[in-house]
Amino acid sequence: MEGSLPRHLCHVQKSSAIINRFHALIHSTALIALIYYRASFLLQNNDTRSGHTPIIPWLLVFAGELVLSFIWLLDQAFRWRPVTRAVFPERLPEDKQLPSIDMFICTVDPKKEPTLEVMNTVISAMALDYPPEKLHVYVSDDGGSSLTLYGMKEAWEFARSWVPFCRTHGIKTPCPKAYFSSLEDGDGSEFLGTEFMAERRRVQIEYEKFKATLRTASKEGGIRNESMSSPTDHPAGVEVIGADQVEMPLLVYVSREKRPSHPHHFKAGALNVLLRVSGIISNSPYILILDCDMYCNDPTSAQKAMCFHLDPKISPTLAFVQFPQRFHNISKNDIYDSGLRSTFSILWEGFDGLQGPVLAGTCFYIKRVAFYGSFIQDDIDILKLRESFGPSNEFIRSLGQNHKPSVGFLYQSVLEDYLTAFTMHCRGWTSVYCNPSKPQFLGSGVTNMNDMLVQGTRWSSGLFDVAISKFSPLIYGPLRMSILESFCYAYLAYFPLYFISVWCFGIIPQLCLLNGIPLYPKVSDSFFMIFAFIFVSSLSKHLYEVLFTGGSFQTWMNEQRNWMIKSVTCHLYGSMDAIMKKIGMREASFLTTNKVVDNEEEKLYQMGKFDFRTSTAILAPVIILVISNMAAFMVGLARVIAAGNWDKMFVQVVLSFYILIMSYPIVEGMILRKDKGRVPPSITLLSTVLAMVLLTLGSTALMY
């Protein structure tokens, strides 16, 4: 009877789907009316048009509206059929019948990714509630650091106490740092006897010694290893740790060879090396991939994933189970939108109602065979396999008889997860999104503006790489997957184009406001209601989604503000970077997000104050836009009051005012704040000069 019960259930959010579809219908009708209004102006003859708006600003604003409408249309695919899922791990077969799992953890630089934090992730993975002999943890040290190898050996020694302690007492938090630092930890509460407390104290003392050992080694630069000369130039190294321990997961250190003259393809290259090494050592049918700071917060994540992977109805085509990224250091205010609320509470649930979500780079259990090709039987050329995988007979045999030479993560984008998942879905694979109430994994979110914008630029560049490649979702996808699934992928690939809309809306109407040139219908014009409806409809729908997913009005404000900031900077620079790589003007690069906690930055973040300590190139565009809007609003408002032409200029006044309201923390950082995190006066001065030049040149151009 138990075997016949379902191990998971899928629930379609019907009420949300109905609301989303109704809103999409009404909003798209309004957009059609807007496009008609703009197009009718362009079709007027020159004599009729001469008494109105110059054609160039009109075209630029229209272009911004078209781009925004295009991205909005793609975005609606996520909202067509959102679903949620429930799992029942207690219905899984016995431990001896469960498949083995390889776990991949990637790290690069101990200076940006502290070894102690990485080892906590490693230890938490080893302590999953799963048969220990079926777990194999592989750590990719892409920097070839002797400190990482030393840390793994010390982590193994501590894990010999920690893993049995977790299994014996049913500890619910497998990460030792999180467990011991929790002030109200209920783990093992049913065992709060003298024996349990004594063992807990013993393990905690061992953990303190482990921490002290790693901190000392970090200060001293680790254990010297002459063979590993530098993070970008070192030989390969593989070391199996604790292979003789039957009741413990296998731990393997892997450092691939890197030479400056040879492209190494960043994280994708490191993961593909782990695929090859693990294929020879353990060759587990399933793989968990984690970022080095994303520790296991619930020991049952593997069981939850197996509820899907072991379902005979969906397993033949199921490539991976994606869990959401959650973060332990997110403040209630979350001024940088580091919690990625929209991504994992709206987009991925919508993705899941179609063919399944995209890979999120971490926190997913993937079927090994999905990396090796399609599930369709093909003739295999052994020579081609050797060209792709190398001369290892053991590894070639591990591929079986059903795989193509195109293996592993793809290299055409620095966002290897997005492109790899896209091609998997194009080959017919599916995926699911599992979002339990307790976060299965917890990582470190960004807590300063510099990291937020650097990370955002990397994401924008990687996504736009795909948009302008042969894998463009709107060209490559529709014939290989459902149209709605391809729209979802297209939204992610093309959303960096938001920079066109935000720059057009943030500069052009303001220039025209300064010069008394209307770009929108009069308040008395019937088309005014179309523009007003679209503006209110967009904002209110976003607010509804924020409140529906547990956010607040402040959350909505933060997300609106960050959308503007990222569009002006990350999306602009990311798109430019992708285009320059496409035409061969620069090579791909990958900047690791800093995981080191800065107490001063953390304090500002918890206080809800932006930390503006970043490069001039990143910050200046935002300040220029804000100063331009301040000048346009003050001068334009005075001009409107004097001329009494509110009817013509109302929309432009409101638009500029709205931008300033959303930009208040930036204005505060320029004018009111005196702390170290304020906008540097030099950047404020430079941006003011550039904004005045921009407004002067723009106003001069409008006169001709």
From TrEMBL:
Mn(2+) binds at K267, D291. Keywords: Cell wall biogenesis/degradation, Glycosyltransferase, Membrane, Transferase, Transmembrane, Transmembrane helix. One of its GO terms (biological process) is cell wall organization. InterPro entries: Cellulose_synth, Nucleotide-diphossugar_trans. It is found in: Endomembrane system. Its main location: membrane. This is Cellulose synthase-like protein G2. Signal peptide: none annotated. The chain crosses the membrane at residues 24-43, 55-74, 488-508, 528-547, 617-637, 649-671, 683-703. The active site is at D142, D417. PANTHER family: X-BOX TRANSCRIPTION FACTOR-RELATED. UDP-alpha-D-glucose binds at K112, E113, D142. One of its GO terms (cellular component) is membrane. One of its GO terms (molecular function) is cellulose synthase (UDP-forming) activity. It is a multi-pass membrane protein.
